[in-house]
Amino acid sequence: MSANQFNQQRIDIRKKMREMRKSLSTSEQKRAADDLIINFLQVAKVTEGTQVGGYLANDGEPSLSPIFEDLWAKKAVPNLPIIHPFSRTHLLFQRYEENSPMSTNRYGILEPKLNCSHVCPVAQLDYILTPLVAFDSQGNRLGMGGGYYDRTLAQIPADRSQRPLLIGIAHQCQEVAQLPVASWDVPLDYIVTPKTIYRPGAQ
Ligand SMILES: Nc1ncnc2c1ncn2[C@@H]1O[C@H](COP(=O)(O)OP(=O)(O)OP(=O)(O)O)[C@@H](O)[C@H]1O
Ligand SMILES: [Mg+2]
Questions:
Q1: Do the annotations mark residue 132 as ligand-binding?
Q2: How confident is the model at residue 171 (pLDDT cuts 50, 70, 90)?
Q3: Is the minimum distance from the CB of 135 to ligand 1 under 6 angstroms?
Q4: Residue to probe by mutation, ligand 1, list 8, 150, 153, 183, most atoms within 8 Å of CB
Q5: How far is the CA of 73 from the centre of ligand 2 (A)?
Q6: Known binder of ligand: residue 168?
Q7: Span from the CA of 181 to the centroid of ligand 2 (angstroms)
Q8: Three-state SS for 153?
Q9: Are 110 and 104 in contact (CB under 8 A)?
Q10: What distance in angstroms lies between residue 172's CA and the mean position of ligand 2's atoms?
Q11: For 165-169, what is the mean pLDDT?
C-alpha cells in the first residue's frame, strides 16, 4: 500500500466513525455511559487514591460522567488532559474535582485551568482512559489525528507494572476488523465498550 493510500484509509475511517458516533441519540448515549462503567469496573481496580486519566466527552464520544462520580465516591482521583503549556504537542494530566476551574482549549474542549500542584505525572497514573475514533480487537487505536496521545505515551516504560494501563473507551460501533497502523501508534492494553471488554494485551 502506498503512503497516500494508507493516509486516505485513515481519513476515511475517521470520517465514517465520527459520523456514526455523532448520530447516536441522547438516550443511546445515556445507556452507553451507564453500561460502560460496569465493564470499566471489571477491568480497573479502583480504591482510595487510584489515579485515573480520563476525558470530557466531545464529538459523540462515550461520556465518562458515571465513572467520574464513582471515582469521587471512592476517594480515587480522576484527571483530565490539558494541552501542555510549553510542549504544545503533548498532554499533561491534572486532577479533576467537581468544582475545578475550567477553560476552553483551542479545540473548544473544556480542560482544567493549569494548577501545577494538581498535575499528575503520566507515569504515576494507574489507568488512562483514552478516547478514540476507531479500534480493532488487536488493541490498535485510531485517534482524531493530532498525535497527542501517541506523543504523550511514547515515553512510558514497556513493563506493564511500571506504567499506567491504557484502556481505550469506545462505542461498540467504533470497531473495525483491522486498522491501518502507523509505527508511532501506541497500542492499548484493553478496550472497553458498553457491550464488550477486549484484552488484546492480557498476559
Ligand atoms: N511519538 C511521536 N513523536 C513525534 N510525532 C508523533 C509521535 N506520534 C505521533 N506523531 C505525529 O502525530 C501525527 C498524528 O498521528 P496519528 O495520526 O497517529 O494521530 P492519532 O493517534 O489519531 O491522534 P491522538 O494520539 O491525538 O489520538 C502523525 O503525523 C505523527 O507524525
Ligand atoms: Mg495514532
A1: no
A2: very high
A3: no
A4: 150
A5: 33
A6: no
A7: 8
A8: helix
A9: yes
A10: 19
A11: 98
pLDDT of residue 185: 98
Q: Which of the four CATH numbers 3.40.50.720, 3.30.70.1290, 3.40.50.10420, 3.40.50.360 does domain 3-198 have? A: 3.40.50.10420
Q: Which ligand is nearest to the CA of 10?
A: 1
Rounded CA-CA distance 1/7 in Å is 10
pLDDT at 155 over 90: no
The number of CA neighbours under 13 Å toward the Cβ of 148 is 17
3-state secondary structure of 112: strand
pLDDT-derived band at 72, boundaries 50, 70, 90: very high
Residue 103 belongs to what H/E stretch?
Answer: strand 102-104
How far does Cα 44 stand from its chain's mean position? Answer: 14
Query: Is there a contact between 22 and 139 (Cβ–Cβ < 8 Å)?
Result: no
pLDDT tens for 97-141 read 999 999 999 999 999 999 999 999 999 999 999 999 999 999 999
b/e 68-85 (16+ beta carbons within 10 angstroms → b): bebbeeeebbbbbbbbee
Judge whether residue 86 has pLDDT over 70. yes
Q: Domain map of the chain by residue range?
A: 3-198
Distance 85 CA to ligand 1 centre (A): 18
